[in-house]
Amino acid sequence: MTQVPKMTSRERLFAAVTMQTLPDQVPCVPLLMTRGIREGGITVDQALRDGEASAHAKIKALKKFGGDVIIPGTDLFTPVECVEGCELDYLPYAQPSLVKHPTPTKEAFYRYKEKYLREGFKPSERVLQIQRARTMIARRKDTHAMPTPVGGPITRAQLMTGSSEFLSYISDDPDYAKEVTELALDIVKNVCRMMFEAGIDVCNILDPFNSSDILPPDTYREFGLPYQKRLFAYIKEIGGIGFTHTCTFTQPIWRDIANNGCFNFNGDMYPGMDHAKRAIGGQISLMGTLSPFSTFMHGWTTDVANKVKKLAAEVGYNGGLIVMPGCDIDWTIPDENLKAMIETCASIKYPMDVAALGDLSNVYLAGHPKHPGKRAPSTAGDTDVAEAKTHHKELTPQQEVNEKLVEAIMEYDGDKAIEWVKKGLERGMTAQDIVFDGLSLGMKVVGDMYERNERFVTDMLKAAKTMDKAMPILTPLLEQAGGDGGPTGTVVVGLVRGNTQDIGKNLVCLMLKANGFKVIDLGKNVKPEQFIESAEKENAVAIGMSVMTNSSTVYVEKVKELLDKAGKGDKYLLMCGGAAANKGVADKMGVKYGLDANAAVSLVKDHLQAAA
C-alpha cells in the first residue's frame, strides 16, 4: 500500500475532522489543558491570570510531548465567568471550581438580564488573557491546529442557577429554563466570537449537562439541541469551526449530535466508541476516548499503546478518528503514559494495516459493555418497573401501604404519597416502617434503574420531590422516636476542592435523605477544615467526600490527617466516591469507598449497626 504523504499536524487534524481525505497517521490531541501548564513551572491559578505565562507553558508542553494541537484555555467556565456575580476559586493543580452561582434566584437573573440587555456583553479578564495567550502562540498556527474549550448553552444555564435548581426549572417552569438558556446562548456566542477574532481555529463546545446520564433524550431535544444548533449555525456564519463535547452515556442522542451542525463529536462515548462509529461515524468525525483514570492514571504504557491500537482498528480504520482522552486529564498523569499515546498514534500510518496492529480482542476500553466499570444499558425498562411493584394474591394492610408508596414514588405522584402515608399511620404503622419499607424502597428502585440507564437524574429529583411532599407528616414522628438528629443520624457531604461536577454528590444526598438520614450538604469546593467543622457542629456520624480528580485526593487525606492529629480519627465514618476514587485509593487513605449513592447509604447503615 502506498502511504499518504507526510502532513503537518494542522493538515493531519483537519483531514481527519473533515473526512474528505485520509490523514497520514492517526491524529492525536493529548488534551494538555491544565496538565500542559505543569511543564511551564507555574501553577494553574497563576496561568489563568497571566496569558503570556500560560502560553509559554503550553509551548513547552508541546515541545516536550508533541501532539497535533496547542490549546489556549483550560476549562468550560469562561462564559459563566463573564456573568456578573460569578465567583470561581482558582486552584493550583486543577481546573477552577465554581463557588458562587451568579443568578441563583429568579430575581437575580432578571436583574442581570436587564443590565445585560442595557449594557451588552462584557468579557471577563480571563477571556482577555486567553486571547493574549493565543497571540503569544500565533506562530505555531502554521503547523498546529489551535482549538479552545468553551462551555455550551445549557451547561452555562445550569451553572448560572445551580444544577439541581435548573433541573427543577426544566420540570416545573420550562419557560423560565428556556429564558435562562437563551441568555446563556448569547453569552456563549460572544465568547466564541472573541476566540475566533483572536485567531482560534476551533471552539470545542463543552456541554456535559446534555448527557443522557442527566437529561432524558426527549428533554435534551427540547432544552439542549435547539440551542446547540443555533450556536453552531452562528459559528459557521462567522467563519469558525465548532466541535461538541458531551461526557458519559450519550448513545441515545448520537444521531442528534451528528446533526447539530458541529464538525466533530468527542467525549467518553459510553457504551463504546466502536458503537458510535457504526452509528454516526459516516456522518461526523469522532475524537476520544481513552479513560483519564483507568488508562492514563492507573495504566501502564503498554495499556495505553494497546488501547490506542484498538481505537485505530475499530474506529479509525478508514479515517475520521482523532485519539484523545475522554475528558480533561489530571495534573499528575505520568509523562510516559502521555508519550505512549502520542508515539503510538504517530506509528499508525494510513492506509491502515489493521492486521499489523496485532490481536486486540482482550483489550477493554473504559465504558464499553465488556468493561467492568460500566453496565450495559438494560432493555428491560417497564418490565422491571412492573416487577418492582410487589404483587401478592392477598396483601396485608401494611403490604398494601408499602406497595402504593413505591408506586407513588415511581409515578412521581405526591398526592398519592401523602394519601398512603396517612393510611399507613391509620393502620398502625410506625413512621420508620413507612419511610424504610415504602418511600425509601421506591427511591431505591428508581436509583437502581438510574444505575442501569433506565431513568435519569431528572427522574431521581422528581422521585425525591415526591418523597419530600410526604415527609412533613413523618418528620415530627421520626424526631420523637430518634431525637433531634432523626432516627439514623447526620451525614456531612461535599465535593472536595478542585471539583465542579456535583451531580453524583447530589444523588448521594438524595439517597441518604430518602433513607432517613439528616444530610448537611456543603456543596462544591469544600476545604478539609469545613468538613470537620460541620461534622463537629452537627454531631455527625459520617463525612462523605466526592472526588472527581486525582489531584484532589490530597484533600481527603487532609481530612483524615487533621482528625488523627486531633485524636478523633475514629469518631466519624469517612467515605469517598466519585470518578477519581476506587477501593485501592480509599484503602490507601484509610477511608471507605462507595461505588454509588446506594453504596454510600449501605456504608453508613453498616457503620451505625457496628457501633450499636
TrEMBL record:
NCBIfam families: mtaA_cmuA. InterPro entries: Cbl-bd_cap, CmuA, Cobalamin-bd, Cobalamin-bd_sf, Meth_synthase_dom, Methanogen_methyltrans, Mtase_MtaA_CmuA, UROD/MetE-like_sf. Residues 392-486 form the B12-binding N-terminal domain. One of its GO terms (biological process) is one-carbon metabolic process. One of its GO terms (molecular function) is metal ion binding. It comes from the Bacteria. Residues 368-399 are annotated as: Disordered. Residues 488-612 form the B12-binding domain. CDD domains: corrinoid_protein_B12-BD, URO-D_like. Residues 386-399 have a biased composition (Basic and acidic residues). PROSITE patterns: B12_BINDING, B12_BINDING_NTER. The keyword Manganese does not apply. This is Methyltransferase/corrinoid CmuA. Keywords: Metal-binding, Methanogenesis, Methyltransferase, Transferase, Zinc. Its cofactor is Zn(2+). It holds the Pfam family B12-binding.
